[in-house]
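Today's session is about reading a structure prediction critically. Students often jump straight to the picture, but the first step is always the sequence itself: look for stretches that repeat, for charged clusters, for runs of hydrophobic residues. Only then move on to the predicted structure, which in these notes is written as discrete structure tokens rather than atom positions. Here is the chain we will use throughout the hour.
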Amino acid sequence: MTERLDRIEASIESTRSDIDDLLGAIAITDRQVRDLRGESADAQQRFETLRLEAQADREEFRQSWNDAVTQMASDRAEYRKQAEADRTETARRFDAQQETIQRLLLAIVDLSRDNNRLRDRVDNLEQAS
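Below is the predicted structure for this chain, in token form.
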């Protein structure tokens, strides 16, 4: 019976050792699970931070784009207004040049007419003399 008790005791001792090993493994696994949870929470926080930064960047880009489009529309309107003013000024100058040319032509015609009259008078005087 002592032999049998020794074997039971050895079996219990072996079981205790296995239980201690199992408890150690459970403690290690528990620690690893906690570490993973912490890493997961850190990763989730980093992901959330990156997502918020990306969202802010998109909003900033969208605002910049809208500002650029608004500026382009404003510039285009200003350009059209200036182009119309330039066309009006060019037309005014052209009309003024045409008027000046017309006056000069009329002055040449008048001068030619006066010259013809003077020649006719001279011819008349020469024939009369």
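Discussion point for the tutorial: Residues 40 and 91 are 75 Å apart (CA to CA).
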